[in-house]
Amino acid sequence: MFDNQPEHSIGGTGADRAALSAAGLHKAYGATVALEHADISLVAGKVHALLGENGAGKSTLVRILTGAVAPDAGGMMLNGKPYAPHSLLDARTRKVATAFQELSLIPNLSVAQNLLLPNLPRAFASMVSTRRTLEAGAEILARHGLDRIDPAAEVGRLALADRQRIEITRAIDNAGQVLILDEPTASLAETDWLFDQIRKATQRGVAVLYISHRLAEVREICTEATVLRNGTTIASVDLGDASDGDIFEMMVGRKFAHQRKPRVMRSASGEAARLAVMDLCGHDLQDMSFELRPGEILGVAALEGQGQQELFRMLVGIERPHSGRIEVDGAPVKFSGPRDALKIGSGIAYLPEERKTEGIFSGLSAATNVVLPVMGQAARGILISHGREISVAQAAADRVEMNPRYLSFPIGDLSGGNQQKALIARTLATGAQTLLLFDPSRGVDVGTKQSIYAAIRAFADDGGAVLFYSSELPEIVQLADRCLALYGGRITRRFKGAEITEQSLVAAMLGHVTPEITEGVLA
């Protein structure tokens, strides 16, 4: 279908006009080959997409382009000259900057300090000037349309979406030649700000590498794409000449038939509520009330900052409501944290928003990360049995179609998709009968999404109850039996079955309130 050599590809992205080009890149970690033969060319003033399944080699390619790791073979050119950065900072001095999906910000430093590191303004006796740092940080924020963010704010206290914006802003401000954006919208509900910043960067002649699993936004902002599969560049194509089906086929090696599973409404109305929320208030939430019954998948649709994060955190005791009532299996509860929520009644397991800082223990194996809540099952007496740990972890990993060979790897070395599979496997391994999943497929490829969807459906089909928030409306349309739309910390609409469409969700998420269907019908 497409020539597998990028220099002969559709659109002719040849290295002779490239700002940054790479040819024949190879990288192995012991017996594991992460990158077999990768070629890519980025053109000044153009946005080029990098596509591929999780584990295809995208992260390794980015690490090589940014100097985080050195290739075992192959070479790179920057503006026609050999390019071999030995660190992220070295790449940045050559005006190649990256915004990572797994944020690289220092959480206990201010916004301004994160934006300016390592070159903080100095005052007398080479001491860092706090005043000049804040002034320079404020100037950068204003230049990129983020003057609403306080430059003195501690980064770790910002919402995840604002942390993502700071990461992106720092990269754009340092990218004089090449800007690499790794899943930049994974934590952003809207793309307007980001795309505006990208267009301004390309107008300055910056070449942009855009990595995303969301083809719709790739087509909106990118003109060309390179597809990786199993560590090898399959093709570089003009996106105007390649259909979604063509791209999926290049990514997975076979034709991809996107089939939406017909929604079968489960008859749960006669069952007692597994989880009941009554008049919950606090922080941004106002009068939140709903019920979740066994066998149901209840979606939450909302734009950024409408109270969805506070809702999930209150339900597992991370944050305290000001008023209201939470019941599990008919009994009122007050949790001291997620571990406490696991022990109450039939148990509630929570998948957090940010896997790097709230989910994984990067230095431990994937198997250990999966079995952490049920470590006793992997023990022989007071000692942990490696064999039992792998056995318990594999049983849970099988439910999300995670390749068992990854269980022995440090989880920090895995792709984002496999990290997410491991975390979902961990929630399933707990034996909890209620799952609270916050953006469960954030930043994963189309194949991994289908595995996650299948695991969620299977859990509900077995009598489990699922409450999930997603930043992707098609995911809610495909998965949810019922849906709550939030705006301003309130439920603006409740939908069920065929009423759940992207158009109806968008209207409700923007605050266009219509008379709600009664709780008695939709609870």
UniProtKB/TrEMBL annotation:
<keyword id="KW-0547">Nucleotide-binding</keyword>
<dbReference type="InterPro" id="IPR003593">
    <property type="entry name" value="AAA+_ATPase"/>
</dbReference>
<dbReference type="GO" id="GO:0016887">
    <property type="term" value="F:ATP hydrolysis activity"/>
</dbReference>
<keyword id="KW-0067">ATP-binding</keyword>
<dbReference type="InterPro" id="IPR050107">
    <property type="entry name" value="ABC_carbohydrate_import_ATPase"/>
</dbReference>
<protein>
    <submittedName>
        <fullName>Ribose ABC transport system, ATP-binding protein RbsA</fullName>
    </submittedName>
</protein>
<dbReference type="InterPro" id="IPR003439">
    <property type="entry name" value="ABC_transporter-like_ATP-bd"/>
</dbReference>
<keyword id="KW-0813">Transport</keyword>
<keyword id="KW-1278">Translocase</keyword>
<keyword id="KW-0762">Sugar transport</keyword>
<dbReference type="GO" id="GO:0005524">
    <property type="term" value="F:ATP binding"/>
</dbReference>
<keyword id="KW-1003">Cell membrane</keyword>
<dbReference type="InterPro" id="IPR017871">
    <property type="entry name" value="ABC_transporter-like_CS"/>
</dbReference>
<dbReference type="InterPro" id="IPR027417">
    <property type="entry name" value="P-loop_NTPase"/>
</dbReference>
<keyword id="KW-0677">Repeat</keyword>
<feature type="domain" description="ABC transporter">
    <location>
        <begin position="259"/>
        <end position="513"/>
    </location>
</feature>
<keyword id="KW-0472">Membrane</keyword>
<feature type="domain" description="ABC transporter">
    <location>
        <begin position="20"/>
        <end position="255"/>
    </location>
</feature>
<dbReference type="Pfam" id="PF00005">
    <property type="entry name" value="ABC_tran"/>
</dbReference>
